[in-house]
Amino acid sequence: MSEERLQKVIANAGVTSRRKAEALIQSGRVKVNDKVIKELGVKVGPGDEVSVDGLPIEREKRVYFLLYKPRGVISAVTDDKGRKTVSDFFVDIPQRVYPVGRLDYDTSGLLIMTNDGQLANLLMHPRYEVDKTYIAKVGKIPDTQAQIQLRKGVYIDKRKTAHAKVSILSSDRQKDTAIVKITIHEGMNHQVKKMFEAVGSKVIKLARESFGFLDLTGLSAGQHRPLSHQEVEMLRTQAQGNDPKKIR
């Protein structure tokens, strides 16, 4: 685990919010390795001891999982309507993990779960261009012009989507339905559904089959597996390598 800002470490330990953690630091109530820290922006590593009001904080181990989310499950930690959430699949995990992005209630497929906020932000930000591939069953087969529009970008919610990869896997002319593979790297709300709506097709069923180089091989709906250290580092490298700010 790399170094993180002190206020973030305090917040991640569940002591208080990040903003209140900043106030604690500025008021001299935080120590790092028995030294009072009052300046914001100080970074601490895994070996540093952090205490608030003399009490050491418990720094949670970073964990990473790949979940095959079934349909009919909320991509959230809790749900006020009492519906099943992705957190229900991790009741045996001591850490509290959160979904990276979201999949709609009626969408199945690959979801990354972690308590590493820094990596989650890297993977969710459209600037970093991590590909996400979906398989969609749609009503009204997209014609050649519709496919070109999807590839070049369509306007949804007054924003134009980035270029996408689109291919028709199969079609049923009698029912006017098609199975379409589409790859995007953004994460706008209901994006894939709205993209197809923009070209006159309606998504009947949707599943995310891959995220970057990760796929669902070996998993059934509702199952999860830990990501290896190598996979986590590959995800981090892939996201950072796609950052246009780092391309000279």
Describe the protein's architecture and organization.
The chain has 248 residues and is of the alpha+beta class. The chain folds into three domains: 4-56, RNA-binding S4 domain (Structural Genomics Hypothetical 15.5 Kd Protein In mrcA-pckA Intergenic Region, Chain A, Roll), CATH 3.10.290; 64-126 and 216-243, 2-Layer Sandwich (Alpha-Beta Plaits); 131-211, 2-Layer Sandwich (Alpha-Beta Plaits). The chain has six helices and 17 strands. Strands 7, 8, 9, 10, 13, 14, 15, 16 and 17 form a nine-stranded mixed sheet that branches. A four-stranded antiparallel sheet has the order 3-2-5-6. Helix 1 crosses helix 2 (18-26). The radius of gyration is 21 Å and the shape is elongated.
Main sheet properties: 9 strands, mixed
CATH class of the largest domain: Alpha Beta
How many domains would you count in the coordinates? Answer: 3
What is the chain-wise order of helices and strands?
Answer: EHHEEEEEEEEHEHEEEEHEEEH
Mean pLDDT across all amino acids: 90
- Helical fraction equals 10-25%
Number of strands: 17
Put simply, the count of helices is 6
Distance between the termini: 27 Å
* CATH level-3 fold name of the largest domain: Alpha-Beta Plaits
How many whole angstroms does the radius of gyration measure?
A: 21 Å
Percent of residues in beta strands: 25-35%
Q: In CATH terms, what is the architecture of the largest domain? A: 2-Layer Sandwich
**Structural classification:** alpha+beta
* CATH homolog superfamily of the largest domain: Pseudouridine synthase I, catalytic domain, N-terminal subdomain
Categorize the overall geometry.
elongated
Q: Which residue ranges are poorly predicted, with pLDDT under 50 across at least 5 consecutive positions?
A: 243-248
GO biological process, one term: enzyme-directed rRNA pseudouridine synthesis
Organism: Agrilactobacillus composti DSM 18527 = JCM 14202
Enzyme class: isomerase
Keywords: Isomerase, RNA-binding
